[in-house]
Amino acid sequence: NIDKKELLVTCGRLILESIKNGDCLRNPSFLLLTYADLKKYHFNYLFGFPALSPSSPFTYRSISRLDTLFKDSDLQHLVSHNNDFQSEHKSVGFFLVDREGSKLSPQPLTDFEKVFKDGGDRLTIGFCDP
To answer: Which of 4, 12, 51, 92 is the most exposed place for a label (fewest CB within 10 A)?
Structure first.
């Protein structure tokens, strides 16, 4: 038995501290508590992660597949460079995709301010299940 509320509060404080000191950009984390009742085939999952809470809601233009937004050659370039990027950086699962013209390149989360400052419309946040 575990006190889920206390666990969420404790982990929430740790995650907030990592956001304040910038460690979340070098080593992003979240909470995952799982329990499997194998006799009844019940599986329970509790996730804890930071969520954005903007003053006004985000809007989106449309949902699009990557292959409709970028050429195959650009996506292949991203995939090949992402393989090298993943081997060089600790926070393998999360990264920025920087777009300069048709060039797509993975960047570490620590470059967020630099990339965003240059133009937030060219910024995409990527996730790759290692």
So the answer is: 51
